[in-house]
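Researcher: I'd like a structural prediction for the single chain below. Treat it as a standalone chain; there are no partners to consider.
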Amino acid sequence: MTRLETLRNTLDATLGARAAKTVERLGEITIEVAPAELLAVAVLLRDAPGLRFDTLIDVCGLDYLEYGDGAHQGSRFASVVHLLSVECNQRLRVRAFCADDDYPVMPSLTEIWPAANWFERESFDLLGIVYEGHTDLRRILTDYGFVGHPFRKDFPVSGYVEMRYDPEQKRVVYQPVSIEPRENVPRVIREEGYGTGR
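Model: Treating it as a single chain, here is the predicted structure.
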């Protein structure tokens, strides 16, 4: 039995129906759980023998709007957690989809893995996923007055406002974007027969 099969069997035995979906791809396992089950599953993943995922490597938010040219059916926003078990030398990915696309909410994992703190703040800042139970959920990369969440697929590339220093007022001022929206399509010129070996 391979290490991946052993991990999958241990996950099945430990989590049971709490893992709504298990996917094995490219030598890694991803489990999908409901947001309501996330905290209970996280404690089991951290503490259960054969799992012992003691290290949280990353938490990131995802926007599945127009994912796969519209092939994705389901909730728009997901929170993905990457875990490492130093004791068992294994990795795991845990994905949970937010129940509400208009107000995406996910339980915070900071009580289980304190390293989730800044990752959850980044996900909140860039995608607008609210992590309930986070003690200091505020913007971390954008300005506190920033409107919107720039990593959402429907956020315009140029944004809504621009800032500049005004020498007359001697301060930074915000104004509507003055850039005309455009699409940049690279022009590629190749000689005849390129890539055919001639």
